[in-house]
């Protein structure tokens, strides 16, 4: 298994979908279900962290005179 902390958002979400599918089918042993649930929780946290990171990088473009882009400011400003 890949280290969750090193996964891209796309890889983490894909694996999370697989984990959820396995849990929904209900055809895994209890111990494996617990391990899958723990893995799923870690994958969910990774996806949330990557989304937050992306949100923080989003910037609002500031326009100067004549509508000419002047620079960027953080989204929260």
Overview of this structure, please?
With about 80 residues, the protein is α+β, with helices and mostly antiparallel strands. Helix content is about 60%, strand content about 15%. Helix 1 runs antiparallel to helix 2 (about 30-55).
CATH architecture annotation name = Orthogonal Bundle
Physical arrangement of strands within the biggest beta sheet: 1-2
What is the β-strand count? Answer: 2
Unreliable residue stretches:
none
Tally the helices: 2
Helix content: 55-70%
How would you state the average pLDDT, rounded?
87
β-strand amount: 5-15%
Give the class-level CATH name.
Mainly Alpha
The gyration radius over C-alpha positions equals 19 Å
Q: What number of structural domains do the residues give? A: 1
Q: What spatial form do the alpha-carbon principal axes imply?
A: rod-shaped
CATH topology: Helix Hairpins
Distance between the termini: 40 Å
Q: What would a concise description of this structure say?
A:
With 77 residues, the protein is α+β, with helices and mostly antiparallel strands. It contains 2 helices and 2 strands, in the order H-H-E-E. The protein has one domain (4-74): Helix Hairpins.
Any descriptors?
77 residues, alpha+beta, Helix Hairpins
How do the strands and helices of this protein lay out in sequence?
Layout: H1 9-25, H2 30-57, E1 59-63, E2 69-74
Helix pairs in contact: 1-2
